[in-house]
């Protein structure tokens, strides 16, 4: 339980010009956690002191960033089974007040529309064509080719609103909807790209395709759900002068997907010159890498 009087006393000292004093107070306030954010925001609104406001913003951000790190650690330690949870944790780095339920509702809207298009006896190809129709034509999702490097392409709340995203964000939303419908579509961590694989060892081989390790075919959500086979992946890797490694053909882990989001954000913010964000995102990336070693 936080001592209210101690909190008020500490906040009154935030305008102390001595930086060492401020750092001490900051560390103490940060240790109180998210519980004090509402009070700090009230103080911010009532103050006309620019330095005090900046210091409060600094403290609130530190508290929220510590929460993101904590949630990311917990998600990974819990097995990282739910991709959406990991994606939402990263989203809260930039949007700490994110309404998770709103995201769930938006995904359920797409799922419901897709469900109405699906038949019980549909083949994998027919299911994906139905998904493509709902995803790209009914809901209007498309690849953001104009501002491809914009960090907004990596935040699921903004992509669901704008209907535009990069390879990874579109693939995440597409696969989340598919899995909600019990359609086995998963992310594949292809270099310089990100695609999806339809995985089902029980299905028959499609004409012109070959099933290897359960992958029937691949889907490119960045290109309106274009369907292609293993030979096309071979050709893509050959163009990049890369060896045909197993991980370029098989579904990757949820942790790998979150790492890919973080690397995209680091690259985007680096190009924009937001080095403070780069430093923090690299800290989050380090958390994912330390658990996967």
Give a structural overview:
The protein is of the alpha+beta class. It folds into two domains: 4-77, Leucine-rich Repeat Variant (Alpha Horseshoe), CATH 1.25.10; 101-252, Roll (C8orf32 fold). The protein has twelve helices and six strands. Strands 3-4-5-6 form a four-stranded antiparallel sheet. Strands 1-2 form a two-stranded parallel sheet. A hairpin with a 6-residue loop joins strand 3 and strand 4. It starts with a helix and ends with a helix.
**Structural classification:** alpha+beta
CATH architecture of the largest domain: Roll
Q: The biggest beta sheet, please?
A: 4 strands, antiparallel
CATH topology name of the largest domain, in short, is C8orf32 fold
The outline comes out as elongated
Strand composition percent: 5-15%
CATH class of the largest domain: Alpha Beta
The DSSP helix count reads 12
- Subunit arrangement of the protein: single chain
Order of helices and strands: HHHHHHHEHEHEEEEHHH
Number of strands: 6
Our count of domains comes out at 2
Low-confidence stretches: none
Q: How far is it from the N-terminal to the C-terminal residue, by CA? A: 38 Å
What's the alpha carbon Rg, rounded to whole Å?
Answer: 23 Å
Strand order of the largest sheet: 3-4-5-6
Report the mean per-residue pLDDT as an integer. Answer: 91
How helix-rich are the residues, as a percent range?
A: 55-70%
């Amino acid at each position: 339980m936080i001592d209210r009087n101690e909190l008020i006393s500490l906040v009154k000292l935030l305008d102390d010009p001595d930086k060492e004093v401020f750092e001490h107070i900051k560390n103490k306030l940060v240790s109180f956690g998210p519980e004090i954010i509402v009070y700090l925001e009230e103080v911010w609104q009532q103050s006309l002191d620019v330095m005090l406001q900046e210091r409060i913003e600094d403290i609130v951000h530190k508290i929220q960033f510590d929460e993101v790190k904590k949630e990311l650690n917990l998600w990974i330690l819990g097995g990282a089974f739910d991709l959406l949870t990991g994606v939402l944790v990263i989203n809260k780095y930039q949007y700490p007040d994110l309404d998770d339920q709103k995201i769930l509702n938006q995904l359920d809207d797409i799922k419901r529309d897709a469900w109405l298009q699906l038949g019980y006896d549909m083949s994998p190809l027919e299911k994906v064509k139905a998904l493509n129709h709902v995803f790209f034509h009914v809901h209007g999702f498309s690849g953001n080719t104009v501002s491809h490097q914009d960090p907004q392409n990596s935040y699921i709340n903004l992509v669901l609103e704008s209907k535009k995203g990069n390879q990874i964000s579109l693939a995440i939303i597409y696969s989340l909807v598919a899995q909600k419908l019990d359609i086995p579509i998963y992310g594949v961590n292809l270099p310089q790209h990100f695609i999806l694989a339809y995985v089902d060892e029980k299905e028959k081989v499609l004409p012109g395709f070959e099933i290897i390790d359960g992958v029937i075919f691949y889907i490119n959500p960045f290109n309106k759900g274009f369907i292609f086979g293993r030979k096309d992946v071979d050709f893509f890797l050959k163009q990049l002068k890369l060896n045909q490694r197993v991980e370029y053909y098989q579904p990757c882990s949820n942790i790998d997907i979150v790492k890919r989001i973080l690397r995209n954000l680091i690259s985007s913010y680096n190009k924009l010159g937001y080095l403070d964000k780069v430093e923090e995102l690299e800290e989050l990336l380090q958390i994912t890498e330390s658990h996967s070693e």
